[in-house]
Protein backbone atom coordinates (compact mmCIF):
# COMPACT_ATOMS: atom_id res chain seq x y z
CA UNK A 1 0.00 0.00 0.00
CA UNK A 2 2.85 2.38 0.85
CA UNK A 3 4.47 1.74 -2.56
CA UNK A 4 1.21 2.51 -4.37
CA UNK A 5 0.74 5.71 -2.35
CA UNK A 6 4.34 6.78 -3.03
CA UNK A 7 3.89 6.08 -6.77
CA UNK A 8 0.64 8.10 -6.85
CA UNK A 9 2.34 11.02 -5.07
CA UNK A 10 5.32 11.01 -7.45
CA UNK A 11 3.02 10.72 -10.49
CA UNK A 12 0.89 13.62 -9.22
CA UNK A 13 3.95 15.82 -8.71
CA UNK A 14 5.29 14.90 -12.18
CA UNK A 15 1.94 15.69 -13.83
CA UNK A 16 1.79 19.00 -11.97
CA UNK A 17 5.32 19.96 -13.11
CA UNK A 18 4.51 19.03 -16.70
CA UNK A 19 1.35 21.15 -16.57
CA UNK A 20 3.34 24.13 -15.27
CA UNK A 21 5.98 23.68 -17.99
CA UNK A 22 3.29 23.55 -20.70
CA UNK A 23 1.64 26.71 -19.33
CA UNK A 24 4.97 28.57 -19.28
CA UNK A 25 5.81 27.48 -22.83
CA UNK A 26 2.37 28.51 -24.09
CA UNK A 27 2.60 31.86 -22.31
CA UNK A 28 6.03 32.48 -23.82
CA UNK A 29 4.79 31.60 -27.33
CA UNK A 30 1.70 33.81 -27.04
CA UNK A 31 3.75 36.68 -25.61
CA UNK A 32 6.16 36.43 -28.56
CA UNK A 33 3.26 36.56 -31.03
CA UNK A 34 1.76 39.52 -29.22
CA UNK A 35 5.03 41.47 -29.33
CA UNK A 36 5.55 41.04 -33.09
CA UNK A 37 4.40 43.93 -35.25
CA UNK A 38 3.78 43.60 -38.98
CA UNK A 39 3.93 46.58 -41.35
CA UNK A 40 2.60 46.01 -44.86
CA UNK A 41 4.87 47.42 -47.57
CA UNK A 42 3.17 46.26 -50.79
CA UNK A 43 0.21 44.14 -51.86
CA UNK A 44 -0.36 42.79 -55.36
CA UNK A 45 -3.41 40.87 -56.53
CA UNK A 46 -3.06 37.93 -58.89
CA UNK A 47 -4.33 38.66 -62.43
CA UNK A 48 -7.61 36.84 -61.72
CA UNK A 49 -8.01 38.65 -58.38
CA UNK A 50 -8.25 35.41 -56.39
CA UNK A 51 -4.98 35.73 -54.45
CA UNK A 52 -2.80 38.44 -53.00
CA UNK A 53 0.92 38.55 -52.35
CA UNK A 54 1.85 40.80 -49.44
CA UNK A 55 5.35 42.12 -48.76
CA UNK A 56 5.73 43.15 -45.13
CA UNK A 57 8.22 43.89 -42.42
CA UNK A 58 7.92 41.85 -39.23
CA UNK A 59 9.52 43.20 -36.10
CA UNK A 60 9.64 41.03 -32.99
CA UNK A 61 11.84 43.16 -30.79
CA UNK A 62 15.34 44.52 -30.47
CA UNK A 63 17.04 41.12 -30.52
CA UNK A 64 16.10 40.38 -34.13
CA UNK A 65 17.50 41.95 -37.31
CA UNK A 66 15.19 43.94 -39.57
CA UNK A 67 13.60 41.53 -42.01
CA UNK A 68 11.27 41.48 -44.97
CA UNK A 69 8.69 38.77 -45.53
CA UNK A 70 6.18 37.70 -48.17
CA UNK A 71 2.87 35.93 -47.60
CA UNK A 72 0.46 34.52 -50.14
CA UNK A 73 -3.19 34.68 -49.06
CA UNK A 74 -6.66 34.57 -50.58
CA UNK A 75 -7.69 38.02 -51.84
CA UNK A 76 -9.24 40.19 -49.15
CA UNK A 77 -7.71 38.21 -46.29
CA UNK A 78 -6.02 40.26 -43.58
CA UNK A 79 -2.38 39.56 -42.85
CA UNK A 80 -2.31 37.18 -39.85
CA UNK A 81 0.07 37.78 -36.94
CA UNK A 82 2.41 35.07 -38.26
CA UNK A 83 5.69 34.86 -40.17
CA UNK A 84 5.49 34.96 -43.96
CA UNK A 85 4.44 31.71 -45.63
CA UNK A 86 6.46 32.29 -48.83
CA UNK A 87 9.71 34.15 -48.22
CA UNK A 88 11.68 35.60 -45.30
CA UNK A 89 15.05 37.35 -45.48
CA UNK A 90 17.17 39.76 -43.49
CA UNK A 91 20.05 42.10 -44.34
CA UNK A 92 22.74 39.55 -43.48
CA UNK A 93 24.17 41.83 -40.78
CA UNK A 94 24.10 44.85 -43.10
CA UNK A 95 25.62 43.14 -46.17
CA UNK A 96 22.45 43.78 -48.20
CA UNK A 97 20.96 47.27 -48.52
CA UNK A 98 18.00 48.09 -46.30
CA UNK A 99 15.20 50.61 -46.49
CA UNK A 100 15.65 53.22 -43.70
CA UNK A 101 14.53 51.64 -40.44
CA UNK A 102 13.46 48.49 -42.22
CA UNK A 103 14.60 45.27 -43.89
CA UNK A 104 16.00 44.65 -47.36
CA UNK A 105 13.85 45.57 -50.36
CA UNK A 106 11.82 42.86 -52.07
CA UNK A 107 9.90 43.18 -55.33
CA UNK A 108 6.94 40.97 -56.26
CA UNK A 109 5.32 40.41 -59.65
CA UNK A 110 2.55 38.08 -60.74
CA UNK A 111 3.59 36.28 -63.93
CA UNK A 112 0.23 34.50 -64.21
CA UNK A 113 -2.64 33.45 -61.92
CA UNK A 114 -0.52 30.62 -60.51
CA UNK A 115 3.01 32.02 -60.82
CA UNK A 116 4.66 34.65 -58.63
CA UNK A 117 8.12 36.16 -59.11
CA UNK A 118 10.09 37.56 -56.17
CA UNK A 119 13.24 39.67 -56.60
CA UNK A 120 15.73 40.50 -53.87
CA UNK A 121 19.38 41.45 -53.33
CA UNK A 122 21.72 38.47 -53.55
CA UNK A 123 23.65 39.62 -50.46
CA UNK A 124 20.61 39.19 -48.21
CA UNK A 125 20.36 36.22 -45.86
CA UNK A 126 17.45 34.02 -46.95
CA UNK A 127 15.70 32.35 -44.03
CA UNK A 128 12.72 30.77 -45.83
CA UNK A 129 12.31 30.42 -49.59
CA UNK A 130 9.33 28.29 -50.63
CA UNK A 131 8.97 27.29 -54.30
CA UNK A 132 5.25 26.47 -54.00
CA UNK A 133 2.42 27.63 -51.77
CA UNK A 134 -0.72 25.75 -52.63
CA UNK A 135 -1.13 25.80 -56.42
CA UNK A 136 1.13 28.85 -56.86
CA UNK A 137 4.67 28.38 -58.18
CA UNK A 138 7.22 30.89 -56.91
CA UNK A 139 10.37 31.91 -58.78
CA UNK A 140 13.22 34.01 -57.45
CA UNK A 141 15.50 36.56 -59.12
CA UNK A 142 18.21 38.90 -57.86
CA UNK A 143 17.39 42.62 -57.98
CA UNK A 144 20.98 43.52 -58.85
CA UNK A 145 24.11 41.50 -59.45
CA UNK A 146 27.05 42.74 -57.41
CA UNK A 147 30.62 41.96 -58.36
CA UNK A 148 29.63 40.08 -61.51
How would you sum up this structure, described in words?
It is a single chain. With 148 residues, this protein is of the alpha+beta class. It has two domains: 1-35; 37-142, no CATH class. 23% of the residues lie in helices and 39% in strands. The chain is built from one helix and nine strands; from the N terminus they run H-E-E-E-E-E-E-E-E-E. The chain has one helix spanning 2-35, and strands at residues 37-45, 51-59, 67-74, 87-90, 106-112, 115-120, 125-129, 132-133, 136-142. A five-stranded antiparallel beta sheet has the order 1-2-3-4-7, with no helix packed on it. The protein has a four-stranded mixed beta sheet with strand order 5-6-9-8, with no helix packed on it. The protein is elongated. The termini are far apart.
Which terms would index this structure?
single chain; 148 residues; alpha+beta; 2 domains; five-stranded antiparallel beta sheet; four-stranded mixed beta sheet; 1 helix; 23% helix; elongated
Spell out the blueprint of helices and strands.
Layout: H1 2-35, E1 37-45, E2 51-59, E3 67-74, E4 87-90, E5 106-112, E6 115-120, E7 125-129, E8 132-133, E9 136-142
Parallel strand pairs: 6-9
Antiparallel strand pairs: 1-2, 2-3, 3-4, 4-7, 5-6, 8-9
Low-confidence stretches: 24-33
Estimate the strand proportion: 35-45%
Described by strand count, sense and barrel closure, the largest sheet is: 5 strands, antiparallel
Strand segment count:
9
Radius of gyration: 22 Å
- Structural class by helix and strand composition: alpha+beta
Strand order of the largest sheet: 1-2-3-4-7
Name the shape in a single word: elongated
Separation of termini?
79 Å
How would you name the oligomeric state of the polypeptide chains in this document? single chain
Q: What order do the SSEs take from the amino end to the carboxyl end, as H and E?
A: HEEEEEEEEE
What is the count of distinct domains? 2
Compute the number of helices: 1
Give the helix proportion (percent range): 10-25%
Average pLDDT across residues?
A: 84
